[in-house]
Specification:
Largest sheet: 7 strands, mixed
Distance between the termini: 36 Å
Strand content: 15-25%
Helix content: 25-40%
Number of helices: 18
Number of domains: 2
Shape: elongated
Number of strands: 20
């Protein structure tokens, strides 16, 4: 669209009571000032008796940055010098330089939303008429080609359908972050390709994210790309594990994440889409494809998506993120190299000490009953089990201390051949020690989640080549 000529400009639509109200005023202005140009967004025959310009494409409305109709503007020397929004007699008279406009009308009347800012329209107009901030290469598909099937055929999916990442959808999801689309986030293994905010947004669209998930998604990707987490090694191992995301803080509630019933299962969009985005970024940006560098012998269903929030709001204990030095008001993402979920069922223990012993007995079997100094798993404690400790005044620290004591294993049970099992440690390795800890440096990760009813907790084992990482989410 070329430069706007000098004079008056009005943008209206017939489907607006205020626009129809000022229809006689527009005729009054046109009779007094022939420079008036009227753009109509819906009906080229409106306003009656005025030669209006069809703007059903909304190109003019977009270029003029119209958010409300009617809008009246004045241009001088090719630049906008005045603007009146809605109907206000005094403002219209000031913009036009005319007097006694719409004497029979009320003094003021608010306008209606412009069609150019309706949901789903703004992004289309940017793509069609604006200067898009996107730089990713567009893939053209045939007119008869199904979009969903095209994504499958090009290897962009995790085995489930994805949302086709059109420019409009990517622009819409980028509204969820203040970060620039071309900002570099990191290098994604195994192919060590550069990853930008835009590339993450594309995969977030494919995974089914909403814009408000983007701060969590971006932080999860950043955590996965840290040296401590070791994403390349996690891909290459034959172990079961993949990245698991745990979210703490206010943002989990704000975006509707699930920390309660079925928190580790299906059914919650935020949980499912955030974890899936991370997996798709590793696949589509980094090239981490099963059977390629991804060498998991069996894998686990969590490699589709594994993401949940900690149930903090009614907990008697400090959360995972608070234990790691963050304030309760700070939103964080924690990443773990996690495998499958092993249940703990204890419906009989009523005393905290007995429940600690029960947990320890289950935890001793992680990986193998004869393994010691193993990578620390995540212990997900249900609210009912947590109440056994909270109701009797046990702090999280006391629980840890007691549990760690019961996780000391007699060396005689760990040596090779004990119990008729060939595996185990040599007696030389044990030295003078009578016991060895089940987990390295007693670093068990403890998270509270789940529904109100059910005396069940869970163990999520980990891969030893990775360290868990916690990062603050910056909105």
């Amino acid at each position: 669209m070329g430069a706007q000529p000098d004079g008056l400009v009005a943008v209206v639509k017939q489907d607006c009571p205020t626009c129809t109200l000022v229809e006689p005023v527009l005729r009054q202005v046109e009779q007094a000032d022939r420079s008036l140009t009227v753009y109509t967004q819906d009906n080229p025959e409106f306003p009656a008796g005025i030669a209006s310009i069809d703007d059903t494409s909304l190109e003019y409305s977009y270029s003029l940055n119209i958010e409300t109709v009617p809008t009246l503007l004045r241009f001088e020397s090719g630049k906008e010098v005045a603007r009146a929004i809605g109907w206000h007699r005094g403002e219209w008279e000031e913009v036009t330089g005319l007097h006694d406009l719409g004497a029979e009308l009320p003094e003021t009347r608010p306008g209606c939303g412009s069609k150019s800012v309706e949901p789903g329209i703004a992004e289309k107009l940017i793509v069609q008429f604006g200067e898009s901030s996107l730089s990713a290469r567009r893939i053209e598909i045939g007119a008869s080609e199904d979009e969903m099937e095209a994504c499958f055929e090009r290897g962009w999916t995790d085995g489930l359908p994805v949302v086709p990442p059109t420019e409009e959808r990517v622009l819409r999801i980028l509204e969820g972050t203040r970060r620039a689309p071309d900002e570099r986030v990191g290098i994604v293994p195994p192919n060590n390709n550069e990853c930008t905010v835009e590339k993450i947004a594309i995969n977030a669209v494919m995974a089914g994210c909403k814009p408000e998930y983007m701060p969590v998604v971006l932080t999860a990707v950043e955590a996965a790309l840290t040296e401590e987490f070791g994403m390349h090694g996690l891909l290459a191992t034959t172990f079961f594990a993949g990245p698991m995301v745990v979210v703490n803080g206010p943002i989990a509630r704000q975006i509707g994440m699930n920390a309660r019933v079925n928190a580790l299962g299906q059914g919650n969009r935020a949980n499912a889409a955030i974890g899936r985005t991370l997996q798709l970024v590793i696949r589509n940006v980094g090239g981490g494809i099963p059977g390629g560098v991804d060498r998991a012998m069996l894998g686990n269903p969590g490699k589709y998506t594994f993401c949940f929030a900690e149930r903090e709001d009614d907990s008697p204990w400090e959360s995972l993120s608070v234990e790691r030095g963050f304030s309760p008001d700070t939103s964080t993402v924690s990443l773990f190299a996690a495998s499958g979920v092993t249940p703990i069922m204890d419906q009989a223990s009523r005393e905290p000490d007995a429940l600690c012993r029960s947990f320890a007995a289950c935890l001793k079997a992680v990986g193998h009953p004869k393994s010691a100094n193993s990578p620390a798993p995540v212990l997900v404690i249900s609210p009912e089990h947590t109440s056994r400790f909270g109701d009797t005044g046990w702090s999280k620290g006391r629980f840890r201390e007691t549990l760690n004591r019961y996780l000391e294993i007699p060396v005689e049970e760990l040596v090779a051949g004990a119990g008729g099992i060939p595996g185990g440690i040599s007696e030389d390795r044990a030295g003078d020690q009578k016991t060895l800890p089940k987990f390295r440096a007693n670093t068990l990760h403890i998270v509270r989640a789940g529904g109100d009813a059910g005396l069940f907790s869970a163990i999520i084992s980990s891969w030893g080549g990775s360290k868990s990482v916690t990062r603050e989410i910056v909105v």
